[in-house]
Write a structure and sequence with these properties.
disordered N terminus; 7-stranded mixed sheet; 7 strands; alpha/beta; about 300 residues; globular; binds S-adenosylmethionine
């Protein structure tokens, strides 16, 4: 990922920064640096007393984010805030961030468009690459291991649970019959032959989403973040999260609502904030984005 083909355009950029309400002397955490679009926005609103802490569990993305943020900080000279960048999963945030020290925390879930653009990362069914799909390439099973080694029933359950694919048994049967499956192209063909597109959505969309969520424990990561966040934020600090599918958004919505009932959060977005027409035209990826924000009581 040394030469990104296309820049990842941050979604709901102004809205996220407005809800974070960045104060020049505050401490802000971007849990999902990606290409650091949001992070640079935060950085440039901070002053020399401020602090930006960033996480990305993908070493390549962390490298790209670091380069961008270091360059922006150099441009700011002596006005630049303190910068701390951490190559770990945001579920481990409690090991790196002091309790009650944070003024604003942002998480923009999922993977970036660069992950989809790079066939070799194995996220895209539109390009042919190895079946990897790990965000953190240093550990964990690859998609190839999962589709070739998991038993059919378990595979069907996984595709049903994380892909919300009602035709999951048919998909799992086709995958098992098609083994060994070694590339994204081969998997996409097997799945699309078993389940035709619905409402113009490629038949493999849900299966690829399911595998990605499972391989990267994405939903457990989000739950762990919501568990840790209340202890890390100062009173009146802000939490801003952006989700891209219903499974992520449901966890965000329920966690914030339960926290509000317990007096932890004041909800700032009764309904999720979504991208306007102009943003969707400019950046189709923003179509499914939902932003929720809350203030620590
Ligand atoms: C949607 S992108 C973020 C884009 C970013 N806001 C920007 O403006 O460029 C999500 C990023 O979070 C990272 N990521 C996903 N899950 C993570 C986790 N559990 N812990 C840390 N980083 C994670 C991915 O590697 C990816 O780079």
């Amino acid at each position: 990922m040394t030469q990104p083909k296309a820049r990842h355009v941050p979604v709901l950029f102004e809205e996220a920064l407005d809800f974070l309400r960045v104060r020049p002397t505050g401490t802000y955490v971007d849990c999902t640096l990606g290409l650091a679009g949001h992070a640079e926005g935060i950085l440039r609103r901070l002053g020399p007393q401020g602090r930006l802490i960033g996480f990305d569990r993908d070493p390549e993305m962390l490298g790209l984010a670091t380069a961008r943020l270091v360059k922006a900080a150099a441009e700011m000279g002596s006005e630049a805030p303190h910068l701390v960048l951490i190559g770990e999963a945001f579920s481990r945030i409690g090991e790196h961030v002091e309790p009650a020290s944070v003024d604003g925390l942002l998480a923009d879930f999922g993977v970036s468009s660069l992950h989809f653009d790079e066939a070799r990362r194995g996220f895209s069914f539109q390009a042919d690459g190895p079946l990897d799909m790990r965000i953190d390439t240093r550990s964990g099973p690859t998609a190839e291991q999962v589709v070739n080694e998991m038993d059919e029933k378990e595979l069907a359950n996984l595709i049903y649970e994380y892909g919300e694919e009602r035709r999951s048994r048919t998909v799992a049967r086709a995958i098992v019959r098609g083994r060994p499956v070694t590339t994204t192209g081969q998997l996409a063909r097997i799945v699309a032959q078993a389940v035709p597109p619905m409402k113009h959505i490629h038949g493999a969309t849900k299966t690829f989403q399911a595998l990605r969520i499972y391989i990267n424990s994405e939903l457990d990561e989000i739950r762990a973040l919501f568990e840790a966040a209340p202890q890390l934020l100062k009173p009146s600090a802000r939490l801003v999260v952006i989700s891209f599918h219903s499974l992520e958004d449901r966890i965000a919505k329920d966690s914030i609502r339960e926290g509000a009932q317990q007096g932890i959060w004041e909800i700032l977005t009764r309904k999720p904030v979504t991208a306007g027409e102009e943003e969707v035209d400019r950046n189709p990826r923003s179509r499914s984005a939902k932003l929720r924000a809350a203030e620590r009581q």
